[in-house]
Amino acid sequence: MSKKTILTGDRPTGKLHLGHYTGSLKNRVALQNEDKYNMFVMVADQQALTDNAKNPKKIVDNLLEVAMDYMSVGLDPEKTTLFIQSQVPELAELTMYYLNLVTVSRLHRNPTVKSEIQQKGFGESIPAGFFIYPVSQVADITAFKADLVPVGNDQKPMIEQTREIVRSFNSTYGDVLVEPEGMYPEGIAGRLPGLDGKAKMSKSLGNGIDPLEVIDKYGADALRFTLITGNAPGNDMRFYWERVEASRNFANKVWNASRFIMMNLPEEGVKEVSEEALTDADKWILSKVNTLVKDVTENMEKYELGIAADKLYSFIWEEFCDWYIEMVKPRLYNDADETKTAALYTLQKVLITSLKLLHPYMPFVTEEIFCTLQDKEESIMISEWPVYTEKMVFGKEEKAVETIKEAVRNIRNIRAEMNVAPSKKAKVFVVSENEEVRNIFENGKVFFATLGYASEVLIQQDKTGIDEDAVSVLIPNAAIYMPFAELVDIEKEVERLKKEKERLTKELARVNGMLANPNFVNKAPEKKIAEEKEKLENYTQMMARVEERLAHLSK
User: Fold this and answer.
1) What whole-number distance in Å separates Cα of residue 132 and Cα of residue 135?
2) Rounded to two decimals, what is the model's pTM?
3) What one-character-per-residue DSSP string does 215-278 give?
């Protein structure tokens, strides 16, 4: 079966931007590599002149840039014919002939042409040559007998106009020209709109982003990760510099966590440890990363790249860096701790697995870390992909560590509500009639004390020895108590609460005064009145809590 012919291209009116790289260029490379088509890709310099006749240098300067961009993304001259429009003189001849087959009014009715006239701000001063642009496209397509033309949905009117001209020509001369079909994005394809919020990035409108500029500022890994995350299939994704910065921060997080781990690894390396040597915390993170391997692999096999990247981000930043690394620090800093080797082994294993999963998204930082971290595999690019295994499923230990995490979160929340600084330590009592729960906290006592800002952790079956004024938080099957006097300086707390009561009294007087004023109620917008009523409700609740605390401290 003969191959169908595809023709596509770009006008060299500026550097190719991110919209091209995430859209048309990616699609062209995919079509080329299917090896099912005769591919022609054109740099349309003559079409660019239709609205840049007074600035030909702009076109000349971008000719080579566009051609080099084509090859840099993988368009292979041995598989795809790359050419410059002006170097095929027959195209201009065909354009002149086709101009007689279409009226100016028909061109003016073309929605794509109308949109570009509006975007470029021509007003009444539309260059006559601008109307040649859509006819020139017809010449390009028909000269190469293209069966298929890959375009966005916004270009459908241009394809339809091409087909009209072809039909008009063929009605006179017979079936000489091929009537092309448009290749449109499947389903509802998402786009990368321009920085000004317009429908798409455009070279001529200057609302695009040069990827090299982004790479120079934040790195290629950050750009790649930004484009793959935070976007549901089929939705447009606005480009925000803040998102690229957040991706750069994530790369820094991975780098700094890796440096911390490598700083603590012995020069001779760490040998594999037995399952019996692993603590509950070790088994928890190993089980978590094992599940991550399964989930990410399944997502990638379904081409759910953004979902897989989000899972990687959450695991590495939260579970690994914010929780596990903090859990094992006391073990790393204590040479006498018999579980230190198990902690180092687990850190290295989880990091290597995470780097392999992250590599498709952030290839440069992961390769650098991987080659420094270990010497068993030559490169992360050709290393073995992680495989899920039932052996690494530790359901009991996962449940145990999640129980401790919930207790830590509750302790931190209550301390934050009381404005207790993290540096201020206090005794923490864990009270539970459930022996299994008591054992969980006994096994995790070392890292629970660190994460819960505890000076001492006492685990017991009842409230014996706990003061009545102790602050408490509840978790399933257990209660956590902290002596109030160890959390705050009572005199300073009373002074702070009195000042807060004074402030709230003034705010309540102000809000009540406004809401009691007929002029305000009758003339102010509904939104403003609703805001003041909401403030009144919040201030009233805050005052009740302050008065309750003051009464309690005054006993």
Assistant:
1) 5
2) 0.69
3) HHHH-HHHHHHHHHSS--TTS-----HHHHHHHHHHHHHHHHHHHHHHHHS-TT------GGG-
